[in-house]
Specification:
alpha/beta, Alpha-Beta Plaits, 2 domains, eight-stranded mixed beta sheet, four-stranded antiparallel beta sheet, 29% helix, 32% strand, EC 2.1.1.-, transferase, methyltransferase, protein-lysine N-methyltransferase activity
Length: 291
């Protein structure tokens, strides 16, 4: 099905109002983009964090009368708004994404394989993954860094906490690498659903417990913990995350860009003896042992 997108250049003060108007005209989706390419890395849960110069993009059916929509916005905002109308190529976007998600080797033993692909090495530890609507495919540097860390450990019969489990990729990988039990925690119900489905797909559902934060048991602890989220939550939740690791236990955190690494290391050094950080592209992984 062909589509048309209308891009409206505005400010952060007007962006959400304009998004609502585009939705009122029947937009199939509305997204925000930075006009001058200054990325926002860390919106808080429930927060829409916008740029000073924001482009609001409405996606419409190709039969839409775009002139009527543009005239409406000029009537309301005059020359304080810019616009561009683009015809999008008719593609199967799901298929396009699937064609570009290939098996990935993470460490010495572990492969992350899309559920629709053939396994490249049947003798390896293969995790069959379909992320669904949750974050985590192994392609992002932070996920790769965490998977490589898991691959380096002896997890046999151990319990691991995956804090911010997303698609379940880290918890499921830990179980496939020999962990006896994994506990996944996430604020997003869709992540819980995706993790459950990927655990079922990999035959480890009976060893994975999944919780929304409000439902997780009190005093939850393990000898291993991994948290691939963002620096903001890692900063704010540091005492809670540290409390979940037993003395002598190991942890890894990522989702941290390079210039945030030192601050996070200073925070977590209160509870952990830290290793040298590991970097991939502009991202960082911090690991250590609980004091």
């Amino acid at each position: 099905m062909p589509w048309i997108q209308i891009k409206l250049g505005t400010t952060d003060k007007k962006a959400e109002k304009i998004a609502g108007m585009l939705s009122g005209f029947g937009a199939a989706s509305v997204t925000y983009m930075d006009t001058i390419d200054n990325p926002v890395y860390e919106p808080l849960p429930g927060e829409t964090k916008l740029w000073t110069n924001t482009t609001v993009i409405g996606l419409f059916d190709a039969d839409t009368d775009t002139k009527r929509i543009i005239d409406f916005f000029y009537e309301h905002f005059g020359d304080k708004i810019t616009y561009k109308v683009e015809q999008l190529e008719d593609k199967d976007w799901v298929r396009e994404w699937m064609d570009n998600f290939h098996p990935i080797k993470c460490g010495e033993r572990l492969w992350i394989c899309p559920s629709w692909c053939d396994i490249p090495d049947p003798s390896a530890v293969n995790v069959m993954l379909d992320p669904g609507l949750a974050f985590g495919t192994g392609t992002h540097p932070t996920t790769f860094l965490c998977l490589s860390w898991l691959d380096s450990l002896n997890l046999k019969d151990q319990t691991i906490i995956d804090f911010g489990c997303g698609s379940g990729i880290l918890a499921v990988s830990a179980l496939k690498l020999g962990a006896g039990k994994a506990i996944g925690i996430d604020i997003d119900p869709q992540a819980i659903e995706a993790s459950n489905e990927n655990a079922l797909r990999n035959g480890v559902k009976d060893r994975l417990e999944l919780y929304l934060p409000a439902e997780q048991p009190e005093g939850l602890k393990a000898d291993f913990l991994v948290a691939n989220i963002l620096a903001g939550p890692l900063r704010e939740l540091a005492p809670s995350i540290a409390s979940m690791v037993n003395p002598g236990g190991l942890f890894a955190i990522s989702g941290i860009i390079e210039n945030q690494c030192q601050e996070l290391m200073e925070i977590y050094s209160q509870w952990f003896d830290l290793d040298e950080p590991v970097f991939k592209e502009e991202w960082c992984r911090i690991t250590g042992k609980k004091k």
